[in-house]
Amino acid sequence: MKKQALIVWGGWDGHEPDQAADHFRGILEREGFAVEVSDTLESFADPEKLKSLDLIIPIWTMGKIPKRYVRNVSEAVQGGVGLAGCHGGMCDAFRENVDWQFMTGGNWVAHPGNDGVEYVVHIKQSSSPLTAGIEDFTVRSEQYYLHVDPAVEVLAVTRFPTVPGPHMLNGPVEMPVIWTKRWGVGRVYYCSLGHKANILRMPVVTELMRRGFLWAAEGKALYADNNPVIYTNYTGMGDSPD
Fold this sequence. Notes:
single chain; about 240 residues; alpha/beta; Rossmann fold; nine-stranded mixed sheet; two-stranded antiparallel ribbon
């Protein structure tokens, strides 16, 4: 049976979310997925449907989301559904919702120099198949400065400062570009690249996203027969049904 993926795109048009969604759909369909593409957050309204999926890909920069939709996604991922995304579409989404940030592993705070900054993505030495055989590479785009969950496993980094800014006197720091984490038994994958669709179409970025999608989507099957009790259905601090 085909794995089931849901791509939900929208939010700020500057990130070309429709083009990103089309590119990601192509990646998944070539891997044999059945893919639903939606341009409404109402796709997160049905918790049972979300739990039936293998992979959720949000591409929604900024905007607001009802709390119950975040709870629905959170509970699906806690139960094994994969969550994967890139750039502002996943970690600059729904800035007012800290539960979303907790689940995804980080949130955007700045891109010093804005678009057009040339920087190197350094692949961390690890045994992860997600980056096996991939060398360091250079991009010219936004360089994301993020606040990052210390629980994530970092697979690639970039170095700051690259351009002048108020962060410079802090000295050199390594900023995660690609990470994975667990949310319940679900697998979460994030890559900060992808300000424009042309960056996502770079062969190395396409390959990194392909591997991330497949890895995240495998989690549900791995835990289907032996789901350890290592989580509860975390629903955040708010009690509002909104």
